[in-house]
Input
Amino acid sequence: MQPDALATLQQHLITALAQPPVETRRLFHGRGRCWPGLEHVTVDWLQGVLLVSLFRAPADTELDALREILLALGQSVEWLASGAHSLLLQHRYLPDSRMEQLLGEPVEEWLISENGLRYKLDLGIKQNNGLFLDMRYGRRWVQEQARGLRVLNLFAYTCGFSVAAIAGGAEHVVNLDMARAALSRGRDNHRLNEHDLGKVSFLGHELFKSWGKIRKSGPYDLVIVDPPSFQKGSFALDRDYQKILRRLPELLTPTGRVLACINDPDTGPDFLIEGIAAEAPGLVFVQRLENPPEFPDISSDSGLKALVFERVC
Output
């Protein structure tokens, strides 16, 4: 991070804080490679908490300079007027993703909103805080489409898609994730939004050993597949995604749809389009959802890919 790059970051944040978003948003997305020298930096506005994340170890002098501009930001007119009260620096390149409190009191659990829905985040406890902000349009699409549907949410994590689906009037949502702590947070998120938990199921199982349980609650009008690119011991995108795609026809209603997602910068949308054609030829590609404008990328194939497929009779 050279001085000119840090000056760019500082000015970007001052401008953003001059009119802070009403809801949670990414303020700076260096990982899209649109700002040279800042490719490993992201900044999120968590409605009073500013979270700066580093995805690569900086040199000591670079880290000192970054801390200096962030502390100066915390004394700016824009910061004081924005309502911000805490500034966190997360070292995502470390095994424990250590969180450094630069300003304010320590924050561990924090409530935020997106599209009128509420979510609880963990700050300083885990690598990921509980909601992937680049999927904002995907959750909005699910909420808009969900009325009366039976939904299967694979790799549910903290159930963001499920919250959106129930808010949109889904008949029932089945969430599956092997991380039961994440599903527990998903229950919390539904309760925050005063949802009827009788319409939501939580399966804390490993996907590839649970097809029988999944089919039992089907068939589904909508299946959401949003896996990690790699999860040690359980999922590798290039090895395991096809196994899911070939199972889709047995999970879907005759007019069912699929929202299939990839967030690996080295894997383009053709991976899914060609994979569906080979493994589930009864499904056709309908559209790719746009990504939020706060996630610019020099290559559209590098950012989040959220693709909609539908079954043809």
Summary: The CA atoms of residues 96 and 127 lie 7 Å apart. The chain has a mean pLDDT of 94. DSSP finds ten helices and 16 strands in the chain. The longest helix spans residues 3-18.
